Fold:
Amino acid sequence: MATGSSEPKSRYRQYLEVVTGSLEEKKRWRQYKARIKELPENYRTAVEAMERYLMHFGPGDGADAASMFEDLADLFEQSAADGTPIREIFGEDPVEFVEAFVQNYSVGRWISREQERFTSAIDRAAGENTVKDDRTV
Structure:
């Protein structure tokens, strides 16, 4: 079956993806890792450090995460091509940089959902109602 085909997935592939996750997302991940492997050592080290951080605090959704990592590869490939120093990419506070970067991918970010759920629960426990999208939560 060709990628992007309008053919329905076989029953076997549907079952396999339920068990292992999307095969397309796995392909995108392997492509990302191959791109990172080609970076100069200092850029690769920085990307791998950021990748570890993002695995804990980045988007939980597979498609959103795949897009984020592809954008990360784009950023570092371009920076390496331009000879941009690592410190110039991250600035003085790498955590601030990565948090600003991850904010572009908030859909599916599990920590944001949990923060909202926690805040909402405390508001309810305190007897306060919060309004979200014109309805009471």
Strands lie at 131-132, 135-136. Confidence is low (pLDDT under 50) at residues 133-137. Residues 27-109 form a domain with the c-terminal domain of poly(a) binding protein fold (CATH 1.10.1900.10). The helical segments are 11-20, 23-37, 41-57, 62-82, 86-90, 94-102, 110-125.
